[in-house]
Amino acid sequence: MKTVMMEACEGGASASVPRAGRMVKMATFATTTLASAALATSATSVACMGAGESKGGVASDGVKSATMGSEATPTVVFVLGGPGAGKGTQCANVVRDFEFVHLSAGDLLRAHMKSGSKDGNMVAEMIKQGQIVPSEVTVNLLLDAMRESGKDRFLIDGFPRNKENRDAWETTAGYDCDFVLFFDCPEDVMTQRLLGRNEGRTDDNIETIKKRFKTFRESSMPVIDYYSKLNKVCSVNSDQKPDDVYAQTRQYFAKFA
Question: Right CATH number for 42-256 from 3.30.365.10, 3.40.50.720, 3.40.50.300, 3.40.50.880?
């Protein structure tokens, strides 16, 4: 990265400046730019370098590695946002326009809990209490659904919800996401949406909604902060009309058109 920035700077330097002087200025410029980038780690950052990166494996620090088998690695976008942020609506648009498969961790878990199995009944009770389901259950449901789809582009909605989820994904899948699509929306707006959608979900009541918001703040926001430090968070203001939200969302998928 430093080399690219220094070469670009050198190309635009005046011929009257001695080369040694230019190199000092270039090094200072690169260092300052990198320091500035390191500060841009808030969840609302739109730098989102991950949306334009090439595929690779995952190293021990969670960064993609070019040495791991990239050809067999699917494109994975983690989609995060508070309950009622509009993730499902916008994922449907991306599926339509960019041929992604939309997998909702929540939908897979709800189908699992309706199965009547012991694990399914455990999931049902945890969701009712606004708690997060054990990571291995969620990861295995997602990976099974990915394999069954026969496709290689995935929007994984509502995952990872915490550090344990993220660690379990990297350990089991062997690679990290390409980037995180984060729908940022005020809690009062999300509350109105949840209470008004009338989908018959047991967790769409005011007390459980409050628990879900608390869980998101305490468990999911640290995940977003983690990926922000890798410049892999693509933020969208979802407190807008759906068409306006999608106009901002689709720019992050331009390379898949």
Answer: 3.40.50.300
Inter-residue contact 142 to 105 (CB < 8 Å): yes
Contact 86, 197 (CB under 8 A): no
Q: Which residue has the tokens 């990571």?
A: 135
Paired residues of 75 in beta bridges: 153
- With beta carbons less than 8 A apart as the criterion, state whether 125 and 119 touch: no
- Kindly list the domain boundaries of the chain, sorted by start residue: 1-39, 42-256
Q: Could you give the angle at which helices 118-128 and 105-113 cross, rounded to 10 degrees? A: 120
pLDDT tens-digit profile of 126-149? 878 887 677 888 898 999 999 999
Report DSSP letters for 153-191, one per residue. EEEEET---SHHHHHHHHHHHSS--SEEEEEE--HHHHH
Helix or strand run (H / E) with residue 155:
strand 153-157
Using the Cα atoms of residue 103, residue 135, residue 112 and residue 147 in order, give the sign of their dihedral: positive
Torsional sign, CA 101, 189, 48, 171: negative
Unique residue bearing structure tokens 């879900």: 212
pLDDT in tens, 145-163: 999 999 999 999 999 989 9
